[in-house]
Amino acid sequence: MKKHLHFYSDCYFFAGCENMLANFFNDHDFIQSYRVTFSYRYSPEYEAGLKKRVAVLPDGAPLKLLDLSRTIAQIPFRSLRILLYLFYHFFLIKYFCVLWNTGVIYRSFGGDKIDILHINNGGYPGASSCMSVVFAARLRGITEIVYVVNNIAFSYRFYWRWLDYFFDRIVAQTVTKFVCGSKTASRALATTLRLDNKKIITQPNGIASRKITETKEDVLQRLGLPEKRLLMAIVAILEDRKGHIYLLRAMHILKTSGLLKSMPLLLIEGSGPNAQHLKNFVSDSGLTEDVLFVGHEEHVFNLLNAVDIVMLPSVANEDFPNIVIEAMSLRKVVIASRISGTPEQIEEGSSGLLVDCKDVEGLVNAIRRVCENESLRHLLSSNARQRFKRFFSATVAVNNYRKIYEKLINDQNKSV
To answer: Which residue has the higher pLDDT, 327 or 12?
Structure first.
């Protein structure tokens, strides 16, 4: 009889941390090996992304859960948001939501025996309902829980984490194995939750190459781009943590110093709160001919396939960015910040280039190196593709998770 593997996730849209779910659900051999079910917090945005990425959804149901933090986050007035967040945390409204959602999730499990519960979270504590699902599992008697943390855990130095401590202790004691994508994330989680090293696994996520629906020439024509100019791209939400401003400062230095015979064209994909600030900087710095804001690309792999170099100058709140391995899968040169898990994705000087966070001169030098040296671009891109195939493909990642599940199942059988 097949073992029952139930997945749970909570994200308001189908973000990068959800990609492994698509890998699991689209893998025919995996679906045939287990009885797979899935539940998740309902939102129109998440459901649209899920259905777009997964051909056949496993059995399960979207859940309507209580979470006032999202409502507060959408309030445009910063001072009011801060006041409401304080009220939300210190008047225990957050924990009322956690307990309420525990009841909803408990009922959603029904009477079926779940052999392994796989919880997919963005960070830690991340979505509060991921705490609820642990409590519901404990009440249901589910003994094997794999809890995936896709970002760096927040410590108790943040005021809003102080009252989480008691709940965190229950989570730490109940979960069988925590899984993080990078060693940096594993260390942060182990320190925060006081985990024994045997309880935490570092297991990189993988990605499946998405279908290319436009040729490079089609993309260039659609966006009105020159055919022979080197193209760089940054694909990231336009907010401080992604470091766009440092990349633009580097572009300004390259433009005004004359270090390059021919400037590359930088494409900025995405939207976000910093959009107007970044556009103003481009205009004020005389970069309008060297930087193009392309907005939201529905099929971002088409854009990645059309460019030569992919940039990610992140400065905070990053772990194991999917865009890096997506670019590697397409044989692209990657220049990224040396932050959290990126040194585990990129071998410096072999499969890409790494620079320190906020290091504008470092970005200048890295861009100059790859723009001036075609042989280096070929070497980096070729090695990036090989490294992706060896460590970061969807098949490799799914098989590595299967080893975790099988180990838990075997240990469970031995204890019976």
So the answer is: 327
